[in-house]
Amino acid sequence: MSSLQAQLDLACESIQHEIGIGKVADYIPALARVPADKFGAAIVTVGGEKASFGDASESFSIQSISKVFAITAALNRYEHRIWDRVGHEPSGNAFNSIVQLEKENGIPRNPFINAGALVVTDALLKDQSITECSDQMLGLVQQLADDHTITVDNEVAQSERSTSDRNAGLAHFMRSFGRIESDISDVLDVYCRQCAIAMSCEQLARSTLYLANGGTDPIAEIPIVEEERARRINAMMMLCGHYDASGDFAHRVGLPGKSGVGGGIVVVVPDVAAVAVWSPRLNANGNSHAGTAALEALVRITKWNVL
Ligand code: GLU
C-alpha cells in the first residue's frame, strides 16, 4: 500500500479535469467572489498522520459544515432532548425548503437542513447574548482544529445576513408553531456568523477527527462528545449531509460527510481519519462537484468505506 500522501495525490490528480465543472454559489453575494477554480484536500488520521494537496491551507467559507459543530454543541448542552425539537430523518428536499414544515408542525426533519440548523441555533442562544453564542461556537471550532487563528469572515456573514429572507421566512414560520423562542433577528445573526467561519481543508479535517474516534479528539486526547452521540452525528451525516443528494453521495463515497455551499466537504472514516476537500464549483444539488469526485476517487484507492 502506498503512503497516505501518495494515495491522496493519486486521487486528486485523477480528477483535476473536473475542477472547471459546476457553478459557484452566488445567492450569498460574497461567495460569488471566490476564485472558482480552487481545489484543496487534506487528510488527518486518528494517529496524527497528515497529507495535503493543492490549496489545502487556504481558508474558505465553511457554510453548512458548521452545522456539524452546532449539533455537537447542542447535544452537549441538551443531550437527547434536542431531538424533541429537531428530527433525524432525511428530508429529500432542498436545504432551504419550507414545504415539509407545515405538515410536520414546524419541526424540521434534521439539523442539517436550514430549518433544523435555525432551531439548533435558537436552542444554543437560550440565556446567552449573540456575542456569547457566536464566540462559543468559534471557540469550539478553534479548540477542535487546535488553531486559535480561525475567525469569522465578517464580509461573508454580513453578505448572507443582508440577503437572508429565505432563512428569516423559515424562522418566522417555525415560530408560528412555537418552535423558535429567541428573537429571530438574533437567531439569524448567530446562524450567519457560524456559517461564515473560514477554515482550510487542513483545519477542517483536524476539527472533525473526534467523529472518527468515538467523540474524543485522538490527538489532544480530549473528550468532545459522548461516544453514542458521536455515532448519531455520523448517522446524520450519512443520511442527511448532502441535502437531497445524500443518497447519491452515499452511493458514490459511502462515508458520513457534510458539505457546504462554499464548496467544502468533510468526511469521517470511522477509526481511521477525517478528510476535507474544497472546490467552489457546485453541482445542481449544491455540493462541490470536483470535491465529490475527489472523495469518490480516494475511497476507491484506499477502500475506506463503511458500507
Ligand atoms: N449559510 C447558507 C444558507 O443558509 C448555508 C447553506 C449551505 O451551505 O448549505 O443558505
Tally of strands: 12
Q: What proportion of the residues is helical, as a percent range? A: 40-55%
Q: What summary fits the major beta sheet?
A: 5 strands, antiparallel
List the ions, cofactors and other small molecules found in this model: glutamic acid
What's the CATH class of the largest domain, please? Alpha Beta
Per DSSP, the total helix count is 12
SSE order: HEEEEHHHHEHHHEHEEHHEEEEH
- For the biggest β-sheet, the strand order reads 3-2-11-10-9
CATH topology of the largest domain: Beta-lactamase
Mean pLDDT: 96
Keyword list:
12 helices; binds glutamic acid; alpha+beta; 5-stranded antiparallel beta sheet; 13% strand; single chain; 3-stranded antiparallel beta sheet
What does this structure look like?
This protein has about 300 residues and is α+β, with helices and mostly antiparallel strands. The protein folds into two domains: about 5-65 and about 200-300, DD-peptidase/beta-lactamase superfamily (Beta-lactamase, 3-Layer(aba) Sandwich), CATH 3.40.710; about 65-195, DD-peptidase/beta-lactamase superfamily (Beta-lactamase, 3-Layer(aba) Sandwich), CATH 3.40.710. It contains twelve helices and twelve strands. It has helices at about 5-15, 65-80, 100-105, 115-125, 130-145, 155-160, 165-175, 185-195, 200-205, 225-240, 245-250, 290-300; strands spanning about 25, 40-45, 50-55, 60, 150, 195-200, 215, 220-225, 255-260, 265-270, 275-280, 280. The strands form four sheets. It has a five-stranded antiparallel sheet, with helices on both faces. Strand 7 (about 215) and strand 8 (about 220-225) form a beta hairpin. Helix 5 (about 130-145) crosses helix 9. The chain is globular. The two termini are about 20 Å apart. The site of glutamic acid has 10 residues, from loops.
